[in-house]
């Protein structure tokens, strides 16, 4: 999520869902642009590749987030909004897949896959969109 520090056009901060190579690249690029990066992941002990990719002194905040839990999402959004004046960009970057054929996927695996690949996008967007609409500014990017 990109959250401006003030409403006077200052640059903001992204939240990338679960960080992977794509999220790390976004984090490093936004750091180069002088943005505050809110990197969220379920297991923050895996943040080292991101932390190493951004320069020293960068404005990077790693936050724990379970994107399958609506309360966790709302708590994360609330925390970011307390620290930033707005959320300018939400980047939905979480996703999972299988290395098996369709007929070998169990119902539980299918539900989990649908939850992470579709419902997470809906949950995160629902939590952020009211703030973007209120600000009349912002973007949602789905990867």
Protein described:
The structure is a single chain. The chain has 143 residues and is α/β, with parallel strands linked by helices. It has one domain: Rossmann fold, CATH 3.40.50.720. Helices cover 43% and strands 13% of the residues. It has helices at residues 21-32, 48-53, 70-83, 107-135; strands at residues 37-41, 60-64, 89-92, 139-142. A two-stranded parallel sheet has the order 1-2. Strands 3-4 form a two-stranded parallel sheet. Helix 3 runs parallel beside helix 4 (107-135). The protein is globular and about 45 Å long. The two termini are 14 Å apart.
Fraction in beta strands: 5-15%
Radius of gyration equals 16 Å
Query: Given the C-alpha coordinates, what overall shape results?
Result: globular
Enumerate how many helices there are, as a single number: 4
- What is the makeup of the main sheet? 2 strands, parallel
CATH class: Alpha Beta
- Strand numbers in spatial order across the main sheet: 1-2
Order of helices and strands: HEHEHEHE
Query: Any idea of the CATH topology?
Result: Rossmann fold
State the fourth-level CATH superfamily. NAD(P)-binding Rossmann-like Domain
Based on the structure given, which CATH architecture is correct?
3-Layer(aba) Sandwich
Number of discrete domains: 1
Average pLDDT, rounded to a whole number, is 79
The helix content is 40-55%
What structural category arises from helix and sheet content?
A: alpha/beta
Low-confidence sequence ranges: 2-18
């Amino acid at each position: 999520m990109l959250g401006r520090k003030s409403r006077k056009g200052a640059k903001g901060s992204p939240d990338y869902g679960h960080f992977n190579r794509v999220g790390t690249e976004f984090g490093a690029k936004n750091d180069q642009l002088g943005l505050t990066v809110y990197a969220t992941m379920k297991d923050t002990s895996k943040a080292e590749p991101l932390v190493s990719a951004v320069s020293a002194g960068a404005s990077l905040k790693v936050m724990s987030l379970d994107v399958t839990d609506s309360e966790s999402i709302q708590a994360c959004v609330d925390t970011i909004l307390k620290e930033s004046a707005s959320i300018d960009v939400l980047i939905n970057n979480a996703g999972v897949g299988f290395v098996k054929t369709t007929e070998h996927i169990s119902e539980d695996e299918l539900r989990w896959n649908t939850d992470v690949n579709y419902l997470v996008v809906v949950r995160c967007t629902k939590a952020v969109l009211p703030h973007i609409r209120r600000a009349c500014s912002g973007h949602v990017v789905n990867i």
